[in-house]
Amino acid sequence: MKTLIENTFGVAIHLAWLAGLGTAGLGVAIWLSAFDVGSSEKDARESPPTSEIDPPVLEAGAVDETASTFNDAIVFARARRATTQNLADYTATFSKTESIAGRFVQDQMNLKVRQKPFSVYIQSHSKRRPAREAIFVAGKNDDKLVFHESGIRGLITLNLKPDDPRIMAENRYPVTAIGMANLLDATLAIWERESHLSASRAEVIISGQGMTGSSVCDLIQIPHPQRLDGLKFHRTRLSFEKATGLPIQVEQYDWPLNPGDSPPLIEKYTYSDIHTNSGLADVDFDPTNSDYSFSKK
C-alpha cells in the first residue's frame, strides 16, 4: 500500500451522487472534503493560500539550530517513532491543506484513531460544507469506508474501498494513510531513500525552539537546493511537539517556478488538541453509535 507522502494521505473523497436523487456524477466529499480556496481554473502554483505561501522557516542563527546531515534527521525522527507507535489510541483535531489538480483544498475535522485494529472515525466540520462522518476499521465491512453526510444526501450510507478510483481521482491519500504514525513513517521512508542520492546536498537543519501553533516543537527542515531525479519535494518541514515527542505537523513544498519565488505548498497536515490513550472502544468506530448520525435516517 502506498504511504502517506508517496501516494498521489487523499484524505478527501468524491462519491457518486446517491442513487434515487436524480443526479449523476461525483459530488459527496468527506473527511478531508475538497473545496476550492481560489478559482479551480488557476494552477495551484499561481494561487496558493496567502497563509501558506510564506511559512515560518528556520533561518541561519535560530536558537538551538544545528547544521546537520540526513542521517542526523533520520536518527532524530526514529528516536521519536516509538512514542507514536506505542499509543493505544488518541483523539485530535486534524487540519489539512492540499494542492490537488491545480487547486487548493482545505478541511478541518474531529478525529479518533485506534492503533489495533487500525480504526478511524472522522467528523468533518468545514464551514463551507454540510457536516459529514466517515468510519474505517481494518478487517471490518470488507475493509471498506463507511460514509454518511447530513441533510438529504444523508438518507443513504455509502461504502467504498479506501483506494477506490473515485476517491483517488480527487484526493492525495486514502483514509488508511491518516494518523501521526503513518505521517512519520512516510516521511522517514522518503528521507531514507533520498539520503542515498549522493548528488543531493540537502541543507538539513534541526532546531529545538520552533513553534507549531501554540506548541513548542523540535523542527527538522530539509530543503533541496537543486532539483534532481528521485527527489519528491523541494522542502520538508516536520514538527515534533517537544512535550510529548509526537509528530504533529508536516509541510511539503515544491520547487519555485522562478528564482526568488516562494516555494509553493503541496500539502500540509496538522494534529492539534491531542488527547492520547483515551480508552477508545469498538463503539467509537461503530456506525450504529447513537452519538453519530449514521443511524439517524
Could you give a short description of this structure?
The chain has 297 residues and is of the alpha+beta class.
Strand coverage percent: 25-35%
Give the strand line-up of the largest sheet. Answer: 3-10-11-12-13-14-4-5-6-7-8-9
Counting DSSP H or I runs of 4 or more residues, the number of helices is 4
H/E series: EEHEHEEEEEEHHEEEEE
Give the N-to-C terminal Cα separation.
34 Å
Query: Approximately how much helix is present in the residues?
Result: 10-25%
Mean pLDDT across the residues is 77
What tags apply to this protein structure?
single chain; 297 residues; alpha+beta; outer membrane lipoprotein receptor (LolB), chain A; twelve-stranded antiparallel beta sheet; two-stranded antiparallel ribbon; 13% helix; disordered N terminus
Can you tell me about this structure?
With 297 residues, the protein is of the alpha+beta class. It has one domain: outer membrane lipoprotein receptor (LolB), chain A (Clam), CATH 2.50.20.10. Helices cover 13% and strands 32% of the residues. The protein is built from 4 helices and 14 strands. It has helices at residues 50-53, 70-85, 165-168, 180-194; strands at residues 15-16, 26-28, 66-68, 89-100, 103-114, 119-124, 132-137, 145-149, 158-160, 204-212, 215-223, 235-241, 247-253, 265-276. It has a 12-stranded antiparallel β-sheet with strand order 3-10-11-12-13-14-4-5-6-7-8-9, covered by helices on one side. Strand 6 (119-124) and strand 7 (132-137) form a beta hairpin. Helix 2 (70-85) runs antiparallel to helix 4 (180-194). The longest helix is centred in the N-terminal third of the chain and has 16 residues, at 70-85. It starts with 14 loop residues before the first strand and ends in a 21-residue tail after the last strand. Residues 1-47 and 49-63 have low confidence and may be disordered.
